[in-house]
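User: Please predict the structure of the protein below. I'd like the answer in structure-token form so I can feed it into my own downstream comparison script.

Assistant: Understood. Taking the following sequence of 349 residues as input:
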Amino acid sequence: MDSEISVAVKWGAQLFPVELDGTATVGELKERIFSLTEVKPRRQKLMFTGKKASAVHDDTVLSTLGLKPDHKVMMIGSLESDIELITAENITRSQANVVDDLDFDYLAESGVGVPNLNKVESTRIKLERRIAEIDIRIINPLRDGKKLLVLDLDYTLFDCKGAASSVMELARPGLHEFLAAVYPFYEIVIWSQTSWRWLEAKITELGMLLNPNYRIAFVLDRTSMFTVTSKRNNTLVSHEVKALELIWRRFPGRFHAGNTVHVDDLSRNFALNPRCGLKISAYKNAHLAIHVDRELYALKEYLVLIAEREPDFNSIQHKGWKAYLAANGAEGASSSRRSTIQQGNDRLE
């Protein structure tokens, strides 16, 4: 009889010790996890520390993976109850934790107080505290030589308040085509102003977590944000920000201002890194907008174009991304298509 295998399954803040017979498979491990968490096996994505995702399947025998005692396994997955709440028509603003009040155009007024935010002592203290506290959990291994694309979720990639029978019906038109097209050039990160619980459920139901045509590198939730105070129109305003330095400091030499684009429907989230910000129109009223919204189709072309043409993103203004695309898109279109084809051997790990 094969000796027992012990693993430590981490799900959010919870840790579950699991022991199985050495002949057990990954699928059987998922069944045991289901008994402990009530997350159905088909909703689970398991990441074994130090093991490539491509080498692990439901029928893989655990003893063949060379696991050490109490080997760490990260599980991403959502409860059915959470998914039902998200797809319900009466989901409330408080449940989703999405702040949707007056936005401030930091891109338009980049010279009014915004650059100084990085020099404000209280801001630096908060930033350093977040950097020390943040736990970036890599979902898929990072690839060498890729740029960084940070994407907001609510109202950027899907209509988080729309009424529909499933979350997929609320996805912005062209969502998966967009992500598949930019993946050969960028590591994709989702940063949402919601709790981890809701973020995990949303990206799972949108089909983004296990899509065969692209991979999400990691996700960040609202706990990675903090509040700053800036002066807008002679009025002091407090609001949360997404500080890209959190990522840059975590991966020195890999990501920086010159190779990062942050796409969001709220430009106040760019307050500490306005030059990296690209404001996209909010996707709302999906039942009507689905017939006319083409934002991701154009954004896909722009992001591929600058990845090919611009060695340093600091040299361009993302605020004028549509004008840049109009001026350079026709010239770069064939090049983009050729490059995308050539990138076809950039296999998913």
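That's the full token string. Residues 134 and 224 are 7 Å apart (CA to CA).
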